[in-house]
Amino acid sequence: LRESGSIEQDADVVIFIHREDMIYSPEDWSKVHDIEKEPYPRGIADIIIAKHRNGPLGQLKLRFVGRIAKFTNLEAELIPAS
Question: GO cellular component terms (predicted)?
Fold first, then answer.
């Protein structure tokens, strides 16, 4: 955030969204990653909390549902149906 003007000093929270599927096509991804170990991250967003005056910094992964512009928890997908 350095040299970002007043954002660094004025903002209480700065969050970045990073999506690998916006950078790589599935074909390009397979050229630089082992698909067995790192499958193509379609719809996966890294949420990066770069500044938080009253809380922790960190990173988390969420699923992005583009048709309704919504982020959802990935953990919900891991819960087995009973």
Answer: cytosol
Q: Which amino acid type is present at position 7?
A: I
Rounded mean pLDDT, 24-41: 91
pLDDT at residue number 81 = 46
Whole-angstrom Cα distance, residue 10 to residue 43?
A: 32
Contact predicate 79/38, CB 8 Å: no
Q: What is the pLDDT of residues 66-82, one digit of tens each?
A: 999 999 998 755 445 44
* Containing structural domain, residue 11: 6-78
Residues 73, 62: Cα–Cα separation, whole Å: 5
In a domain, 1, yes or no: no
Task: Give a yes or no: residue 41 inside a domain.
Answer: yes
Quote the number of domains for the chain. Answer: 1
| Residue 52: CA count within 13 A, CB half-sphere | 11
